[in-house]
């Protein structure tokens, strides 16, 4: 899951997100053995492990179609076996490391983003009883949440690449980013920041959005600070969004949007939503 990003300091290590996903499964389900890895160049590299007793699975590289993980990598669909040693639905390329760990029942679930498998999460047990549907559901839920997190990170990278390319063109004397596009990116970065569970990434997204805001248009006396959600709402209003559309974009009820907007207007000394947007721009809060 290697990506060239426009800002190496912006995107956290995806391996950390994978490790966190496995820890959450372990805490919530009690599955004794959990492991997984990212897909790079068509190969699955097992880099994260919880509950293992040996080093047999550490650093193992899994090929498509080979073993249980290879089957999941090739099909993009979850799969499991109740007795790994005797399972006929998979190849046995990796019997030595799997059996050395004493694993019998295994479930493997892909992390699918934009139609491609980006990682695979495994849950396993050493006993004779299969893991069961509850364990499989716990791993599948973690896979979905991790996929959503990676999708947001990808979208952030994509938008920043476009923005950086346009700003680079401007520096070379070509046309820069259209103002409305810059405002759109600013609003979407702030919206994305509310969708991610990683606090570090959320802060960096907000920092990136802040870098898109220019200096105040005119000197002014600072007033009460706007709350983050008040600024989120104003960023959407600045794009021409209604309260209902703003609510959909920010996952807020329309009445909640109205409440944030009224509060922002009061702090900015504005009598209309558009006056609030202008005042926020003068303070250097919006592009």
Brief digest:
This protein has 287 residues and is α+β, with helices and mostly antiparallel strands.
Features:
single chain; 10 helices; alpha+beta; disordered N terminus; 6-stranded antiparallel sheet; 287 residues
- SS elements, strand count: 6
Amino-to-carboxy terminus distance:
33 Å
**SSE order in H/E notation?**
HEEEHEHEEHHHHHHH
The strand order across the widest sheet is: 3-2-1-6-5-4
Structural class by helix and strand composition: alpha+beta
Helix content: 40-55%
Gross geometry: elongated
Unreliable residue stretches: 1-9
> Biggest sheet, open or closed, and with what strands and sense?
6 strands, antiparallel
Verbal overview:
This protein has 10 helices and 6 strands. The protein is of the alpha+beta class. Strand 5 (105-113) and strand 6 (116-125) form a beta hairpin.
Give the SSE layout.
Blueprint: H1 14-29, E1 33-40, E2 43-50, E3 61-62, H2 67-75, E4 79-81, H3 95-100, E5 105-113, E6 116-125, H4 133-171, H5 179-193, H6 199-211, H7 228-237, H8 243-250, H9 254-268, H10 273-282
Helix pairs in contact: 1-4, 4-5, 5-6, 7-8, 7-9, 8-9, 9-10
């Amino acid at each position: 899951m290697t990506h060239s990003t426009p800002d190496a300091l912006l995107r956290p290590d995806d391996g950390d997100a994978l490790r966190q996903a496995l820890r959450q499964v372990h805490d919530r389900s009690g599955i004794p053995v959990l492991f997984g890895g990212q897909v790079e160049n068509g190969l699955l590299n097992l880099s994260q492990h919880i509950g293992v007793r040996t080093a047999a699975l550490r650093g193992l590289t899994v090929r498509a179609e080979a073993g249980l993980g290879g089957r999941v990598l090739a099909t993009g669909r979850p799969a499991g076996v109740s007795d790994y040693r005797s399972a006929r639905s998979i190849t046995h390329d990796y019997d030595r490391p799997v059996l050395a760990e004493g694993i019998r029942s295994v479930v493997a679930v892909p992390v699918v983003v934009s139609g491609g498998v980006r990682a695979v999460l495994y849950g396993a047990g050493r006993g004779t009883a299969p893991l069961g549907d509850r364990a499989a559901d716990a791993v599948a839920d973690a896979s979905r949440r991790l996929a959503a997190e990676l999708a947001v990170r990808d979208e952030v990278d994509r938008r920043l690449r476009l923005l950086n390319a346009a700003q680079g063109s401007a520096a070379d004397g070509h046309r820069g980013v259209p103002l409305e596009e810059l405002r759109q990116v600013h609003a979407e970065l702030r919206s994305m920041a509310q969708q991610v569970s990683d606090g570090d990434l959320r802060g960096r997204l907000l920092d990136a959005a802040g870098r898109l805001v220019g200096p105040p248009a005119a000197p002014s006396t600072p007033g009460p600070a706007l709350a983050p959600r008040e600024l989120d709402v104003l960023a959407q209003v600045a794009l021409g969004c209604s309260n209902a559309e703003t609510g959909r974009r920010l996952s807020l009820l329309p009445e909640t949007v109205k409440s944030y907007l009224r509060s922002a207007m009061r702090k900015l000394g504005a009598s209309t939503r558009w006056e609030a947007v202008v005042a926020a721009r003068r303070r250097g809060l919006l592009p």
